[in-house]
Amino acid sequence: MPASDQILTVAQMRGAESRLIEAGSSVDALMQLAGRGAAEWIWRIAGHHSVTVLCGPGNNGGDGYVVAEAIRERGGNAVVVAAGEPATDACRQARALFGGEVLGADAQVSGEVLVDCLFGSGLTRPLTPAHGALLAALAASHNRIVAIDVPSGVQSDSGMVLGDGLPRYDLTIALGAWKFAHFLMPATAHMGALRLVPIGVDAVESAAQAITRPGIKAPAPDSHKYRRGLLAVVGGAMPGAAILASIAAQGAGAGYVKIFADSRRNAPADLVVDTGALAEVLTDDRNRAVLVGPGLGRDSAARERLAVALADRAAVVVDADALVLLAPRHLAERTAPTIATPHEGELAALERAFDLEGSGTRPDRALALAKASGMVVVAKGPDTVVAAPDGRLACAPRASSWLSTAGTGDVLAGVIASRAATGLGAFEAACEGVWLHGAAERLCPPGFTAGQLAERVPAALAECLRAG
Predict the structure, then answer these.
(1) Strands, DSSP E only, in 276-415?
(2) 272 and 150 in one domain?
(3) Is residue 215 part of a domain?
(4) Residue pLDDT, tens place only, 17-30
(5) Are residues 43 and 150 in the same domain?
(6) What's this model's pTM, rounded to 2 decimal places?
(7) Where is the domain boundary, 146, 175, 208?
(8) If you write DSSP's letter for every residue of 19-36 in order, what string do you get?
């Protein structure tokens, strides 16, 4: 994992900065690097228009003084509103180097861009009423708002918003590394576009990762459908969902997608439908992955199909109804990888089934379930998290709200299962599937259906081939 893709907690970031300082850098030097890197992005927005930088008393405020000075040196119009006197040596030094105007908190200022450097990623308590009112007033008097590292009033490690009235930002510039708040709701919904300014932080052992575009190779010249991967999809009481998942899977890399169903009704001509006994379908040694859950139902027949699917020696993706039926006994004898794709309600049901408290942040909950169950867990939603039993953790970029339509979860399950059928490890297949799902959405018009989303999966795959 490149260092630029890692997601760090506040403690991990402080440790990484300390190692840079031990290696010969300094707090002042890192502040200059971060602030001037942020100023590059702000200049693209503001140019010669007026910029107001709101500076707090800590090192985030120091970053703000550096930003303001960098803009001033370019010939831009930058003023600082100081919410208080600098309280750290680095902030005092940065203020001393700023050659522009510093206004008090009672100043009446308006302009094009407000840069929020009031408080950074270390904040653990709500803003005071005075600080909250100051930020709100300046946000209302500027056309655009930029946050440095994280918006003031956000808890970096959890993504929680500490209080009411947080503005909507146009841009958030992460310093040094991504933080969990850049990916987790509700904070990420306020952040606008996200950009990262590197400061030389090395890779941190056990750090979480951001899910980025994978590099996917085309099939080998001598490939055939079985070598590319056979995916068996288990149908059920509502066959449309399984068909939708199968169509998505066909475009995500597997060479052969076969659905087990009671009839061929509504299946496209190029989708193989097997109406034989499920036990016979799933004893095919060529199966590399199995998908069970979309449209499965919750009756006795569904329970039997789930049990048979989990008895397969291939990787199994468990989705939708199958997640509600899943219990620890189903996994007791499994040695092959299992991937679960719960939404919030299904995640809570699984936590009850595995005797988990369901407390903590979304990453905490996903990791706890992964470790308790042995499954790779894709906790899907507007802030999707992927967790593995060995502690690996990944966060997806903020999802589009247009994905909140029926059937898109079936598409995601099909794409992940298809990636697993190509031979990828469960964690890697889950991350690639999540990325392809989001990329397919970006290729759709607003108001798309799940069927249209599935149709865009091959185009999303093509983006990865160009990158691979």
Answers:
(1) 287-292, 315-318, 338-340, 376-379, 385-387, 393-395
(2) no
(3) no
(4) 999 999 999 999 99
(5) yes
(6) 0.95
(7) 208
(8) HHHHTT--HHHHHHHHHH
